[in-house]
């Protein structure tokens, strides 16, 4: 049954693609793993609408949400090869492809969302974006994906001392494991779908994520203490296949770049709205939020993590420039 449904979905997608292609001189396929209605999906749809309008219908962008074309890593590879034209993925998924993106997974790299925007929208963002081209990709837009913070079922976390010995689920990522160790807690990598029951049964004490994920997963039901420490802010990225990009005229490239920049503004607005809704929902459900935390001791505790992962002169210079950005 599953195979049959998958085949049917593929056929329907193919038919939809063929129908769109017949109405446009060029139809670009764009992949997103997030569901329809998600801020990143809606932003790329808005970009598509603007591109179609400004090219008088010559260029269309078909957005395929919910991982219809594959998971992030697979769709990035397909975009590099020109099999699909555009992809929305996390900076973290590009880490093994574009080395310059690796530093954006460092804890407490950004002081705030505003600081992150200033970095991404300035010369550093342009420099990192340029690095994608040698990997057959063209960076179009940087999107928000919120900040990850700690939540648990035991007690409010107001200082590093409150983390000592606690067990937290983290993604299977060496940087995250080392971050927890530096804070005196125990990292427990596990699939996201197992977190709710693991907290409920006491296998782990908590996890870490952004407001919308904390809300939609239902984790707030079993972990009532949320500490807004914002230890990680990994942006999202929209990239185009360089093979596709090179087929476009300079005028059409300019149209797509401008539409992508406008979609960036929209996505950040939609994300902020979604965060606010999720925060209001979990607070109304009785979650205790610690928002006045002193982050400096947490930042200072990351020295061994930075010593381990920021080793080259180029990486050290980039981190210093990011931290110096106002």
From TrEMBL:
Any GO BP annotation: transmembrane transport
This protein is called what? TRAP dicarboxylate transporter subunit DctP
Record keywords, A-Z: Periplasm, Signal
Name the Pfam families for this protein.
DctP (PF03480)
Q: What GO cellular component is one of the record's annotations?
A: outer membrane-bounded periplasmic space
Write down the InterPro entries for this protein, in alphabetical order. DctP_fam, TRAP_DctP, TRAP_DctP_sf
Q: Do you know which PANTHER family this protein is assigned to? A: DICARBOXYLATE-BINDING PERIPLASMIC PROTEIN, PTHR33376
Q: Where is the signal peptide?
A: 1-23
Q: Membrane spanning segments where?
A: none
Localization: Periplasm
Instruction: Tell me the organism.
Output: Thioclava atlantica
According to the UniProt entry, its GO molecular function terms are: carbohydrate binding
């Amino acid at each position: 049954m599953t195979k049959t449904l998958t085949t049917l979905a593929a056929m329907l997608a193919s038919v939809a693609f063929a129908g769109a292609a017949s109405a446009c001189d060029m139809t670009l396929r764009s992949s997103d793993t997030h569901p329809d209605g998600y801020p990143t999906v809606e932003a790329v749809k808005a970009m598509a609408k603007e591109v179609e309008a400004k090219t008088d219908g010559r260029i269309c962008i078909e957005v395929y949400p919910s991982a219809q074309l594959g998971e992030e890593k697979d769709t990035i590879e397909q975009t590099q090869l020109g099999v699909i034209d555009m992809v929305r993925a996390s900076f973290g998924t590009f880490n093994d492809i574009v080395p310059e993106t690796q530093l954006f997974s460092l804890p407490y790299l950004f002081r705030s969302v505003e600081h992150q925007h200033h970095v991404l929208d300035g010369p550093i963002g342009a420099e990192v974006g340029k690095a994608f081209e040698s990997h057959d990709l063209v960076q179009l837009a940087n999107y928000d994906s919120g900040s990850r913070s700690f939540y648990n079922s035991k007690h409010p976390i107001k200082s590093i001392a409150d983390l000592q010995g606690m067990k937290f689920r983290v993604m299977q990522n060496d940087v995250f494991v080392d971050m927890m160790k530096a804070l005196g807690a125990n990292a427990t990598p596990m699939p996201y779908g197992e977190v709710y029951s693991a907290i409920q049964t006491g296998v782990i004490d908590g996890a870490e994520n952004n407001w919308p994920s904390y809300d939609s997963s239902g984790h707030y039901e079993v972990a009532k203490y949320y500490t807004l420490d914002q230890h990680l802010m990994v942006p999202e990225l929209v990239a185009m296949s360089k093979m596709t990009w090179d087929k476009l005229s300079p005028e059409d490239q300019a149209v797509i770049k401008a539409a992508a920049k406008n979609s960036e503004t929209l996505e950040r607005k939609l994300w902020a709205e979604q965060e606010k809704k999720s925060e209001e929902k979990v607070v109304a459900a009785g979650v205790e939020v610690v928002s006045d935390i002193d982050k400096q001791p947490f930042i200072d505790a990351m020295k061994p993590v930075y010593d381990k992962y920021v080793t080259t002169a180029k990486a050290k210079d980039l981190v210093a420039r990011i931290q110096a950005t106002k």
